[in-house]
Structures are given as structure tokens and as C-alpha cells.
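Re-running CAP-Gly domain-containing protein to confirm reproducibility after the cluster update. Everything else is unchanged from the original entry.
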Amino acid sequence: MADNQIRVITQDFVNVNITSSGKNDSCCIERRFQKGITIADLKGKLELLTGGNASTMKIELYSKENVLVGKLDNDQALLGSYPVEDGMRFHVVDTFLLRNELEDLAKVEKFEMSLEDYSKRTDTVRSFLERNKLGKFNEEEMKRREEEKRKEEEADEAAAKAAKIGDRCEVRVPGQPVRRATIMFIGNVEFKQGWWIGVKYDEPLGKNDG
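Result of re-run:
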């Protein structure tokens, strides 16, 4: 190489921190990017990291001392053409993100009403059901349902008590072959009301290998 030729050699990758508008700036994401990518490609990668939109985002470059160095505003330029170094920060300013922040319903104050005030209103579903004696406001219907439920529970209990642990049985499920099994459990469970019978299949079929 001739003495009058000068070559500047820099690393191919750069490690930077990333923040975005509409979020807490103190929350940084650290990522490594190749200096040979275009700013347009960089925006595509930042979409996945910030939830922004490449077509609306603008990227600000900050130094390690948190001083604004400039903006990465040329989509066709290479990242390495900007004075970006390890430890600097990309701040994504995006109207798409800001709009979503404003539309976040979780931050909208909710309208609340006491049960007493709600019961006094005449334009609610509750008042309609009450006037027309429907659902839980129909005493006869509720009594009939409770009686049916009681009879079903009694029948289930009687059937369960008629069986014994160790008894042989067959399990019939629509669309599946008949399976032979041994009763291993009879009683109540925590996850659902009623009487349950647990069986062990002769062959390793079903959940937990039978």
C-alpha cells in the first residue's frame, strides 16, 4: 500500500441501547446490529423490538452521555455511515406508538356504580328480568332446577357407592372403542363438584398412559 493511501477500519457490528416513545425511557433494550444494513432495514428490525411501524418511525441517535448526536433520517444510507459507536442509544419516536398509548383502554377511568344504585335503575337487564320474572327471578323455575339438580346428585352418589375400588368395569365413550379398566378411586375431587370414579385402563391408553 502506498504511503499516501489511508484506510479506516472499523468493526462490522455495533452494540446499542434502544428506547421508544410512549414507553418509559429508562427501559432499554440492548441489541447488536451490523453496520452494513440500511436504515430502512434497521427500522424493520426495530419494529419487532418496539412494536412501532417502520413507515412512521424516526430514529434519534444519542451519545453515551445522553446527548443528541443526530437523526438517522436517510432510509437508503448504511448504518455505518452515521457516527454510531458501542454504548450509544437509538430512541425511536413513533406517532403509531404514541397513538396506541392514547388508545390504551386500561388507562381510561372506569365508570363504577354501586349494586344499590344499579338495582334502582329501570333500564337494565336486571330490571327487565325482574319485571318479567325470568331467570333467577322466577321462583318456581329456580325451585324446579334445584330439585332436578338434587335428584341428579343423589343418583350419582348412589351409583358411586354401589361400586367398589378394585371392581372391574368397561368404559364406553362415543366414537372410541370399549376399554376395560379397574376402579382405583371413588369420591369427591377439588376441581369439580359431584362424585367421581377414577379407573386404570388395562392398556396404556388415554391421559397419563391410562
